[in-house]
Structure formats: structure tokens, C-alpha cells
Fold these 3 entries.
Entry 1:
Amino acid sequence: MRIDVITLFPEFMAQSASLGVVGRAAERGLLDLHGWNPRDYAEGNYRRVDDRPFGGGPGMVMLIEPLRACLAAAKAADPTPAPVIYLSPQGKPLTQAKVRELAALPRMILLCGRYEGVDERFLAAEVTEEISIGDYVLSGGELGAAVIVDAVTRLQEGALNDAESAAQDSFEGPQGLLDCPHYSQPAQHEWGDVPDVLRSGNHAAIARWRRQQSLLRTWLRRPDLLDESQLSKADRKLLAE
Ligand code: 6GU
């Protein structure tokens, strides 16, 4: 998948995409990430990318023309059509369902705003959709873009070493449940012992225990994710135990 990121801080994206699962996916050719800096498309000695807002008030607004030229260059670099996604707290909250939808695309363009925002006329003319990563304030869209890059990259075929690990992650099951607890060596520790069932070798019992833990955790921590009417009879029984 190709991802173009329009940002005043392309180094930020390059850094976050060079490590771990995302870095390895890029090495494997599963992710083709490109940074585009509007400043490189700004005119004049000062290469201005922002100016004061009409009507007054604090902060700066990103100008139409450098963004327009930058986006045009990004689009022209590859013929594959791509949605233009603006990262902003006014956007639709990101969900794993949305991540799955984006991960299936051949390409997308992520637009990171800085300062107080982007001239509304650019957004109206060029942006396909607006996405938020949560109800809190960030200084710019870069962290949101990094979140999307990570989440969609791990869903690319061959990005994870153990194909199983994606399917069992939180939110990835058919019911979108939280993950179960995990344990490793030592089996006995001053902070507690590993549950016997995980050491029993009984794979059916282990699967049942894990499913029950996922259900319980989701019910306790994120009841908003759990639609009990949608649970299977077996799941409802596990939750009631
Ligand atoms: Cl995606 N961008 C910005 N700039 N602020 C945010 C956000 C995104 N999500 C929450 N706050």
C-alpha cells in the first residue's frame, strides 16, 4: 500500500515508520511511505505556509496555495487514485472497522494540519474525509497520521510474522472484544502464578478460558464494546459463569 503524508514535519513520519512492525513492512515492500512538505511548494524568500486568520484571534491558518501545489505534486507522483484524509479533532473517530476499510485501499493521502487549522476552502475543495484519533487536543495531525500508518500496515498481508496474532488482537474478532491476558516464564512468581489451565495442555480448555477472559474484560472495562444481544449462546454462558 502506498501512503503519502503531507506534513510540515516529514522527519517525524519517517522516524515513526522506520521501527518495528511498520519498519519491517516497509523493508518488505508492503508499505510505500512518502512525505511531502508544503514548505517546499511555498513561494518567496520566506516560504510562508501560514498566515493570521481573518476575523482575528490566536494562532495561524495554513494557506491554500502551498497545500494545493504540494497535494498536486503528491497526486502526480503516482497514477493510483487515493482519498485525501484530513487528520483533525473535528473528524470521525477512528475505529478498527475504519482501519480495515483503509487497509484494503491501494493508496491514501494523509493531510496533517498544524497551527489552528487549514483554510476551510482547501478542505472543502480537496479533502475526501476527516478523521480524529480521539477526544483530546493535539498540536498537529502527525500523531494521527502515524496511528493510521501503523494500524493499516499491520493489516497488510505478510506484515506480521505470526498470522494468528492479528486475528486474536483486541477488536479483531467478529465481536470486537478486548484481548485476553498473556503469561510467560516463570510459571511461579512472587507476584502470582500462571493460571493452571494455560499449563494443562488441554487446547479446548485453553481456548475456552481465553474467550471467557476476553468477554469478562470487555464487560468490565469497555461495556460500550459489548452488545450482549449479539453474543452467541455459548458466549453468554461463559460470561455468566
Ligand atoms: Cl487526528 N489531529 C489533530 N490535530 N488533533 C487531534 C486528532 C487529530 N485527533 C484528536 N485530536
Entry 2:
Amino acid sequence: LEKFSIIESTLREGEQFVNAFFTTEQKIRIASLLDAFGVEYIEMTTPCASPQSERDCAAIAKLGLKTKTLTHTRCNLEDVKLAVETGVNGVDVVIGTSSKLRDFSHGRSINQIIDLAQEVFEYLRKQNVEMRFSTEDTLRSDPEDLFQVYEAVDKIGVHRVGIADTVGIGNPRQIYDLVSQLRKRVKADIEFHGHNDTGCAIANAFAALEAGATHIDTTILGIGERNGITSLGGLVARIYSVNPEYVAKYQLPLLMHLDQVIARLVNVDIPFNNYITGFSAFTHKAGIHTKAVLNNPSTYEVLKPEDFGLTRYIHIAHRLTGWNAIRYRADQLGLELTDEEIKHITEEVKTLADLHPLTLDEVDSLLHAMRNSQPETEA
Ligand code: HCA
Ligand code: CU
């Protein structure tokens, strides 16, 4: 688990998000930010998609980033040759193996898939690029078909084999089992790519790592085809919770900026419940919570906001508040009030908050009024 790499696919899977259209400048900005964040790889749209896609892929490959550049292609010689010509560090080859995709998409048998893959990787092997082979719709493919194909490409020497939950149907137990079995069958590294249609994308990626996967595909905010894939921030949060050291290799304070930049570019808001960067991710409300958090934040926080360059917020102006939270606010305002007075104001806040939503200003006014009603004392 501690030795994993992120394959950041905002510039490939992310471009498949309905609202995504990235100009060359925007792609370069995203690539540079991801490089600064420290992801190990970025994956870009196939150069076969359009002439501009080809130019952009080549331009980013030339930037000299620390992160390795990849592009994504179908499993055929022509596409793969174009991919190599862009100058990327690696080529991610994919072909559908489920009967649905074999019957309704490319129409090939498992033996034909193996022949194609052999041809493609014999060529790639001589090109000094990282080679990855992945099966699309892995979860709905026959496991025996899969292992046959993976073993064949493993023999040719691919660096990574990929599992793709293309339709987001897998659950963590299934992913764990599949990756564990694959781990025993191939020498290559194992990559996991998971869609989020049924809400398991992060958990599935984590289960894959626990079972021996080495590479996880992510996108910023999880954008992608339909409702997207494992999000970069979500994966980071999940792994951080096991051991913050495992994600210390990344510039975590850049996450907020990355999420904000992508949200703006694809015209969505960062969801309120987003991992780390959602607006309420570090906001505490109920009196019991706020009291404990004020004493020791780890009581109700597994992620330390300061590790992500963020701060926590104690929400005090509401009827679930407690006098410790009100005391905390009085201290922030530099108002010396006795416990008696603080408790009195807390009761007032609760009474008012039962009538209408309160603002912090109203609480502050009560605190100031109490202080002003105190008899003057000698300084
Ligand atoms: C798709 C392809 C893919 C590929 C994943 C991979 C998927 O858009 O259908 O290369 O590992 O989800 O299967 O994104
Ligand atoms: Cu996908």
C-alpha cells in the first residue's frame, strides 16, 4: 500500500466528462499543476482523437515535467505508432474483453485479442516506452478469458496490466478478489481504473491497493465519462487515513487549488461533501463535537486540515451549540466573560435560534452586550 503511484487521467478520462473542453493552454496549466502536486504519471487523450489532441499531447510530452507522460490508445498498431510519435514516456493500451463489448463494439474473439496485443507489444517493446495493457469492462468479463490475455501480455513483458471497472459495477470485495488472483498470475505491476456509478470508486481503488495493485487512475474531482471515476482528493484522503506518511510525497496544500481550477474550467461547484475541499469538510457544529474538537481536534477529525493548507471552522451560531463553543468565540473576540455569563449567553443563543436562523454577528452582539454590561474594573 505504501508504494503506490497515481496515474492522473484528468487530461484523458477527465476530458470525457460532459462539460470538459480544455484549450492547449489549459491542458498545459493542468499538467503543470499536477506535476507540482507530484503525481507520478499523467495520462492524455489519444492522439488519434483529433489533430489538436495529437499536437497537445506532443506539446505536453515536451514540457520536461517530472511526472511521466502517458497517452491512451486502442489496441492496434496504427494507433500505437501515432502514440509513440508524440514523444510520451508510456502508452496505455486498452481493449474490451467482456462479451458485451466483444459482441457490440469491436467484434473480436479472445484469441484475436491476444494476437492483436502480441503484434502491438512486439512493436512497443522496441520503442523504449512504458507499456501498459488493460482490458475494458474487466468486471463483466469472464475471468478465465482475462487471465489468458493478461498472461500472454505479461510474457511479452508489459510493465503494467490494468483492470478497468468501466461501468462502475464492482464492489470492494470483488475488486480485492480479482486483483489478488491476478497478482498470482502475472509479474507486471497492476493498475486499477474504477468508475463511480454506484459510489464505490474510491473504496474499490483502495481495495485494489490492499490486494497488491501498484497504480491507481484518478481525475481531479473525479470527473470523467458519466459521473466519473476515483477522485484524486478522495484517494489521497482514503490513504492518508491509514498513514499520512503514505501521501507525504505529494504537495497536499495544492489540492484545493487543483479542485478549484478544474471546477471552474468544467463549470461545476466543488460538491459540499467533497473529500478535503468540500466547503463543510472541516466544519464542526454540534456542541458535543465542538467541545471535544476544541480540546483535541483528532476527536472528530481523521484528516488534519493544516496538512492540506486548510483550517477548521467551528460553527457556533445555532441551537445545537454548546457553551464551550461560545467561550471559544468570546476568546477570539478578546472578551473576558465569566463561565456564568457565557452559559447565560448560550441559553439566549439557543432561544433565539429556535425562532430563526442566527448569524455569527448576532452571537457577537450578545457577547459584546454582556461585556458592556459588566461594571468597569481597574485595569
Ligand atoms: C472508456 C475506457 C476506459 C479505459 C480504462 C483503462 C474505461 O472510456 O471506456 O484504460 O484502463 O473506463 O474502461 O476509461
Ligand atoms: Cu474510464
Entry 3:
Amino acid sequence: TTPRHVWYYEGRGGWWQYDQRTNTDLDAAFMNGQRNIDLLIAGFVYVIDFENMLQYRQNETQRRRRIKYDLVTAPKKGVAGLKLN
Ligand code: V3L
């Protein structure tokens, strides 16, 4: 079943929905009250920081992307880099 709300990270001029596995991990960590979580995404460890609502690569913190939790129907560029048509 499709959840009502999902996690997104910022792209250029829009938002990308996280892939399903990462979304499940983010839900679990957030509901568990964690302030942040380290996740392996496309071969790199990313920190997802719920306090500041940001994600960034653990070993290279210059690129900081905003994240949000929003309706699954919110406007998006696609899912995890796969563009919607
Ligand atoms: N899930 C998948 N790929 C990611 C994620 C993530 N949570 N975070 C970063 N990347 P950085 P536009 C994004 C990818 O932050 O045109 C989009 O998914 C990231 O991919 O410096 O700018 C698109 O594929 C980027 O390729 O660690 O909106 C692509 O950018 C790479 O990791 C272009 O999107 C480095 O990101």
C-alpha cells in the first residue's frame, strides 16, 4: 500500500522523493525519535539530520540538501533521480 506522506530531498528547482527502502528507514528512525540517521545511499554514507531537516554526505559535508516530509501527491521531480514524465 502507498503511504499518505513520504520523505523528499531537494533538487534544483524541485523535490525528489526518496527511494522506498530509504523512505522506510527514515520513517522508522523519525518515529523512534532519533535526531539523525546515517544511511547508505548510492554507495555513499549520508547523514539525515531531522533537527535541521537536512541531508549531506558524511565525508563531504559541503553539499547540504533540505529534506521534507510531505504528502505523496506533492509536486516532485521524480523518485531518487528517476524523472517523472
Ligand atoms: N537519493 C538518491 N540520490 C541522491 C540522494 C538521495 N537521497 N542524495 C544525493 N543523491 P550530493 P537535479 C540528485 C545523488 O548531495 O537536476 C538527484 O537524485 C544526487 O542526485 O552532492 O539537481 C538527481 O539524480 C547527485 O547525483 O551528495 O534536481 C541529481 O541530483 C549525487 O548523489 C540531479 O538532480 C551527489 O549529491
